[in-house]
Amino acid sequence: MGRPRLYCGQACRQRAYEQRSATAKAGLPGDVVLVSRNELDGLQDRLYQLRCALEDAQTLLTEKPTKAELERQVAELVRSAGRLDRLWVNERSAG
Questions:
Q1: Number of H helices, E strands in the chain
Q2: Burial of residue 18 (number of CB atoms within 10 Å: 0-12, 13-18, 19+)
Q3: Phi, psi at 66, each rounded to 5°
Q4: What's the longest Cα–Cα distance across the chain?
Q5: 3-state secondary structure 31-87
Q6: What would the pLDDT profile of 20-62 be if each residue is shown by its tens digit?
Q7: How many degrees, rounded to 5, is the angle at CA 18 between CA 15 and CA 21?
Q8: Where are the domains of the chain?
Q9: Measuring CA to CA, how many Å separate 67 from each of 38, 52, 61, 63, 71?
């Protein structure tokens, strides 16, 4: 249904097919994503760091910060967000 799927190459098309087949055989919905506990913990840690950096920035703004303090806090926000931006969940075959 709808538009045909687009893939970067034959290997990606094959991995997607394998994922759909394995999901269907296991009786799971097609939109299920499985991640390891370590991957989930890492993601939660990065989100917590970003949340803390945002809270620190919000607090700093109520205290009449200097330009240097604002620059440090913005750098921390960029660093925290960058950790999440580089995160990418890769499909793996079950094995």
A1: 3, 0
A2: middle
A3: -80, 170
A4: 59
A5: CCCCCCHHHHHHHHHHHHHHHHHHHHHHHHHCCCCCHHHHHHHHHHHHHHHHHHHCC
A6: 888 888 888 877 777 788 988 988 998 999 999 999 999 999 9
A7: 150
A8: 1-32, 34-95
A9: 38, 20, 11, 12, 6
Residues in the chain: 95
Q: Does residue 93 have a pLDDT over 70?
A: no
pLDDT tens string 53-86: 999 999 999 998 999 999 999 999 998 888 776 6
What's residue 54's pLDDT? 92
Taking all residues of the chain, what is their mean pLDDT, rounded to a whole number?
83
Give DSSP secondary structure letters for 4-36.
Answer: PP--SSHHHHHHHHHHHHHHHHTT--TT-----
Q: Which amino acid does the sequence have at 84?
A: L
Radius of gyration of the chain from its Cα atoms, rounded to whole angstroms: 20
- Retrieve residue 40's tokens: 């989930």
Q: How many CB atoms lie within 10 A of CB 15?
A: 16
